[in-house]
Design a protein that fits this description.
Length: 343
């Protein structure tokens, strides 16, 4: 009987299933760094969305596939950090494989680290949780009041734009796409350019458009990252719409279609970083201004540019993360469904 223990959170509605590899149930992942462990998890000849199947990937599929999970499930394996400068590392995963960045997951991990006592936190004030991810070192600042977590601010690796107004043909018409990197590569397109609105009712069309755009950009040089193939290639397509500005800055609603047609229920943490980089380049986001970023389900992140560095813009995205439960999953050796299935 295989057993795997998880602790589950959501950040702005997007699930995050945490597996602490120290707790057992998951074999150690070889590698000297989190990036190397991610490459090991993917396996030689695999890719982020098409990993080779191995012992670790059996666990991923067990937790994300039905009847224990669902196609929209997201999670991470907590692994050792690259060095003593971080509290721990994480390998992010989803239905189709592994990702190099995850803002909502970083928020959830910050809350989890404080909830479990892995990182000591005050009853009032804040504490930084430093996390090594495949794209670099990120930070979750956990905000506390009266003994509970009230919010989490995710400081990402530098964000930068790499291509603007790339023409892409879709079945809904031509679109001009902007490409930016912030731990992963995202393509942004105005939903109205395709005659769409960011609403739950239009999700089938939004997902189709996202898949078509991602496929069309497969070989575009703007999707390449100097860090190599692990960080290259479009991970998510952000379809956004403009809303009336707030007194503090721009206001947008988006749906992010990631991997092979999955929908981010949150406003997408790393994707928000790329939106900030693009808005700043356009002069839409002034110093001290915030982007109010809504998701397709109405949840909100706020983001701003914290600093300018040689590699781009350091962004900070703030949201909430809540614990939803814990599980001890099992696989009966006589169960013909094994690790499960996807619909």
């Amino acid at each position: 009987m295989t057993t795997v223990r998880t602790e589950d959170y959501h950040a702005a509605g997007e699930p995050f299933r945490i597996v602490d590899t120290r707790a057992g149930g998951v074999a150690p992942v070889p590698g000297d760094t989190v990036a190397e462990r991610c490459a090991t998890a993917i396996g030689p000849g695999g890719s982020g969305t098409a990993p080779r199947r191995g012992a670790l990937d059996d666990v991923r599929r067990l937790l994300v596939q039905e009847p224990r999970g669902h196609a929209g499930m997201y999670g991470g394996f907590v692994v050792p950090p690259d060095d003593d400068g971080a509290h721990f590392g994480v390998l992010f995963w989803h239905k189709d494989g592994y990702s190099t960045a995850c803002g909502h997951g970083t928020m959830a991990l910050g809350a989890w680290a404080v909830d479990t006592g892995r990182v000591a936190a005050p009853d009032d004030g804040e504490v930084q949780v430093r996390i090594d991810v495949p794209s670099g070192r990120v930070c979750a600042t956990v905000h506390r009041a009266a003994g509970r977590t009230t919010g989490v601010t995710f400081r990402n690796v530098p964000a930068r734009t790499s291509a603007r107004k790339v023409p892409v043909a879709t079945t809904l018409g031509m679109a001009e796409v902007d490409i930016a990197h912030a731990g992963a590569c995202y393509a942004s397109v105005a939903a109205r350019d395709l005659g769409l609105e960011v609403t739950p009712a239009e999700l089938p069309s939004l997902v189709r458009a996202g898949q078509e755009i991602r496929s069309a950009l497969a070989t575009h040089p703007g999707t390449w990252h100097p860090g190599g193939p692990l960080l290259s290639g479009v991970y998510g397509v952000i379809l956004y719409e403009e809303l009336p500005d707030t007194p503090f800055g721009p206001h947008q609603r988006n749906v992010t279609v990631f991997a092979d047609g999955q929908i981010d229920r949150s406003p997408c943490g790393s994707g928000t970083s790329t939106r900030l980089a693009l808005l700043a380049e356009d002069g839409r986001l002034g110093e001290g201004e915030d982007l109010l970023h809504e998701s397709v389900v109405g949840t909100v992140f706020t983001g701003h540019v914290a600093a300018r560095v040689a590699d781009g813009l350091v962004t900070e995205v703030t949201g909430t993360a809540y614990r939803t439960g814990e599980h001890l999953f099992t696989v009966d050796p006589y169960d013909p469904l094994g690790t499960g299935f996807l619909l």
